[in-house]
Specification:
This protein is α+β, with helices and mostly antiparallel strands. It is built from 20 helices and 20 strands.
């Protein structure tokens, strides 16, 4: 008989394999530019999909070549600086440098390099976070904030927030003093606000406020106020409802705009056009600050064409802005560019939204002029109506191609893993921290004689003869409490119990992993009955 210690699986074998699998999964799916290089000469051993996508080199082109040979460092001196730092400290974190793709495109990156010892060989794990878009986004946000400040002051816009629960104004911008010119701070209650209104407007404006509170709706009105000099000024008051995460209305938020000059200088049509343009751009500006990655559009439903969009929208269809603005209509080229398999579905979503006068969200594929396929997520909402008919809509589009590709790779990986487990010659099962069986492969069915649908959900001690079965729950609870392991992470030779009540000798290796905050134990079992027979 062989010594039991000699037949036991090494204590670190299964966890080591799990670590490798985890590393491989991160390497394959990370959005960072990742590469493994040899420590002695810096040549590439492997590069991630993100590395290939951003830098434009295939894996075959990269393997065996150093970064300098590929020319991916825009400034070779920075490469030497990084290696000097690596030799001094043994690890590099957030080293800023400019990388250059195969076609010459530059990207700003934060680079980290750490040692990696595998199979007695020394390697370096290179990881670069592309911050080019982040820097551009930060610049745009700063510009947007400055432009918004200038535009609100010049346009005489005062923003505010009215709490429906406290029945008072809880926030307002500095420019909101225009509501009460020359009379101190902004009003806090309805009584304060009405006191500054023109006498002829007080009653109906107060009724609008109360109706909006009662019905939890917004409003868009024009009224008059009297300043400290006795001058009458025209204001436009606009409000939208603010909901909490449960959809309950908690406040109204909006702006007041001094439109006295507009009233005096232009006729009704010009004033409406200017107000609506200002309103549209104000809403767009807010959305851009919150969701800078989104493309925004404004659609004329009467003429059925896009009358405004930001620069991101055409790019999501592989077009220039002029091409998009000249040709895109719901019934024409836009639908022609949607993938043929998605067109009927997208048309139906549009039809239901239009018929029900409600918002929509839809995901679909588009085909670029070069033949490539991209995934888009589009949302839309009614912006304006006339005689109960929709005249314009507003919405956003987000390119979700990378998310879709990542999801498909994950699904393919999970499918491969399931196939490997199902075709394995050894029994493989998993249990939770209470000992409940969660997975049971085909080999386990064959070895133990249980159908998986009849054993999954049962306690694993059903597969153990006495005294193992009686002691298992106590042993598992003690391990979870103290970490003292006799089988987990060690393995050994034990007995298994078949469905027919017979027992058999087996080699058992148990490992532990933690996923989504849950501890899972994996058992790999080999029937050694034949081996024992030979030994006897």
């Amino acid at each position: 008989m062989p010594n039991r210690a000699n037949t036991a699986q090494p204590a670190n074998e299964v966890p080591g394999l799990n670590a490798v699998e985890l590393f491989q999964a991160i390497f394959a799916t990370s959005t960072n530019l990742m590469a493994v290089t040899r420590a002695d000469d810096g040549s590439h051993v492997d590069v991630s999909s993100a590395w290939q996508s951003v830098l434009g080199f295939s894996r075959d082109e990269a393997i065996g070549k150093t970064p300098l040979e590929l020319g991916i460092w825009h400034e070779s001196g920075r490469h030497h600086d990084m290696h000097d730092l690596l030799e001094q400290t043994g690890i590099v974190r957030d080293f800023r440098a400019t990388l250059q793709s195969k076609n010459g495109t530059l990207c700003e990156c934060l680079i980290s390099v750490s040692p990696l010892d595998l199979a007695d060989e020394r390697y370096h794990l290179f990881s670069a976070d592309d911050v080019t878009a982040l820097q551009a986004l930060q610049d745009k946000v700063r510009q947007a904030e400055y432009q918004n400040k200038i535009s609100t002051e010049r346009a005489k816009l005062g923003f505010w927030r009215w709490s429906l629960t406290e029945n008072r104004m809880t926030d307002w911008s500095e420019v909101h003093a225009l509501f009460n010119p020359g009379r101190g701070p902004a009003p806090v209650t309805y009584d304060d606000m009405v006191a500054f209104l023109h006498p002829d407007d007080r009653e109906w404006v107060l009724q609008v406020y109360r109706d909006a509170d009662r019905d939890t709706t917004g409003y868009d009105i024009e009224f008059r106020v009297i300043n400290a000099d006795g001058e009458t000024r025209w204001l436009r008051g606009y409000a939208e409802v603010e909901n909490d995460e449960d959809g309950v209305a908690i406040a109204q938020a909006g702006f007041d705009q001094d439109i006295t000059e507009i009233k005096q200088a232009r006729d009704l049509k010009e004033r409406v056009e200017r107000d609506e343009e200002l309103r549209r751009h104000t809403i767009m500006s807010r959305q851009a600050v919150r969701m800078a990655r989104l493309g925004h559009w404004f659609w004329d439903e009467i003429e059925d064409h896009c009358i405004w969009c930001n620069d991101q929208i055409p790019a999501m269809y592989g077009l220039t802005k002029d091409q998009y603005m000249e040709s895109k209509t719901l019934s024409g080229p836009k639908m022609d560019q949607v993938h043929p398999e998605d067109r009927d579905y997208v048309r139906e979503i549009y039809r239901q939204s239009f018929a029900g006068k409600r918002d929509y969200e839809v995901e679909y594929r588009v085909i670029y002029p070069d033949g490539s396929i991209h995934w888009l997520r589009e949302t839309g909402a009614v912006y304006e109506m006339n005689n109960n008919e929709i005249t314009s809509t507003i919405g956003t589009i987000l390119d979700i191609t990378q998310d879709e590709l990542a999801q498909r790779k994950l699904e393919e990986s999970e499918s491969r893993n399931r196939s490997i487990v199902e075709t394995a010659g050894d029994a493989i099962l998993t249990i939770d921290e209470h000992g409940t069986i969660e997975t049971f492969n085909r080999a386990a069915e064959r070895i133990f004689g249980f159908e998986r649908n009849k054993i999954i959900g049962k306690n694993v001690k059903r597969l153990m003869p006495e005294p193992y079965a009686s002691n298992h729950d106590t042993y598992l609870a003690n391990y979870l409490r103290t970490g003292n392991a006799r089988i987990i992470g060690i393995g050994g030779e034990v007995e298994g119990l078949c469905a027919d009540g017979s027992t058999f000798p087996m080699l058992l290796a148990v490992s532990e992993i933690e996923t989504t905050g849950k501890r899972i134990f994996t058992g790999i079992i080999r029937d050694i009955s034949d081996l024992k027979e030979v030994e006897r």
